[in-house]
Amino acid sequence: MKVVCFILLSCFSVYGQWITGFLGAQNGVLPPSRIPWSKYTHIIHFAAAPNSDATVDLHYLVPSEIAQVVASRPSGKKIMFCLKDNDWDLNAFPAATSSGQIATFVDNLVAFTNQYGYDGVDIDWEANVDVGQYTDLITRLRAAMPNKTITMDGGNWGNIWTVAANTASALDQVNIMCYDLDGASNGYSWFDDALFQNGNPNLLTCDWRMRPFLNAGVPPAKIGIGIPFYGRRWTGIALPLINGLFSQSTFFYRDLAVDTTRFQPQYQMYDNTYKSNYLSIPSMGEFDSYVGPEHIRDTVAWQRSAGLGGFMTYTLDYEFIASRSGDAASPLSTALAAEVFGSGSAPAPAPSPAPAPAPTPTPAPAPAPAPAPAPSAAGPVIVSATPLGLLSSPMSSTLATIVTNVAATCRYSAVQGVDFSNMQGMFMDQGTSHVTTLSNLTPGPNTFYVRCQDTSGNTNSSDFFWWMNLPGN
Fold first, then answer.
1. Partners of 311 in the beta sheet?
2. Which of 43, 60, 238, 333 has the fewest C-beta atoms under 10 angstroms from its C-beta?
3. pLDDT tens digits for 129-154?
4. Could you tell me which of 238, 243, 250 has the C-alpha nearest to residue 280?
């Protein structure tokens, strides 16, 4: 179909059908009066939960705040509540949706929706998923609420993609949770939110998590890309893809953005292969994975090229900087809306679909991974270096490796700011992998400065800071 967009917002049905944002209940940070509604089509209030007796538990929600949040909704926008797993009873979903209770449970959900003035419900059933019962729940909800918004969240576990495929015609959105893709137990440092495997099937990324949904037949236009407004901090290393077991912790973007020690330009990096922002802070032995403008830009570009439906963010309060005013208080939401809608505000969402029988799923191709990046005029990107950081064993020399995003020639110096052509340290270059022996190492910090040149002659104009701290003999 060929569509001509005469004004900016008329492109809405083609590019970015929705931006849906989660709002944590009782978050103590973001008041209802400052919800950035102009950047969103839908807000999801997080969260209620099922009880095993088929009643609806307020869980994190409180009636007084519900009233304030619902009252803040501008005309044409949608506010839903999330129905998540019960924190104190992970069998509540299976029990409430059992054959003997499902009818009562749906009636209670409809009553809850209407009682509190919500425009619909978002279902986030993640534990002990029963595909048949989950499918039945969505089908019955759509029949009971033909004009309400019904969405679901999920990932590649519990056969949730089959539920989404079976009920796609009854759902307005299927939002993929493209976060928590890292883990200290994985055995290597990694990004919380990488987009593409880019030819490496062993990496956990958003396209990997989304692929089963597309292969099961969920229409791409029903799928949204989840974006986290929190990040992960790894200690003892300063780069991704470093093998080992490291400690990690979670931080909120609102805290990172005002951290004047860490959030400095010289530490801010972007991995153009896997599409993730990160901080590399060798002096602190720290690698911080987070969402920034570059990740948002590439996420929107992927959504458009793959024909996906929209975006989901988690959560608005994680990014909200109370000391700032206007758009600056919600910087990631503002950047996302600008990429999707230009300088305009998010338009009103389209009406919910009328009930229709679920189609027989037909396989659909997964979005192609991003192609390997072309040489950049800024020179190659060094994506990993080993060894790096705090080392456990003393040594006077070590075999060392760096990896670049494109084929390149690399050199190093013990002195900062040396031009590539004057660097004396040489690597054995094999495409994107570069190996050398570092000698004369001493206990304590050892620092080296690396620059690379791609096959087109583009050279780094600044150093890659490579360091290792050795224990005494």
1. 19, 225
2. 60
3. 999 999 999 999 999 999 999 999 99
4. 238
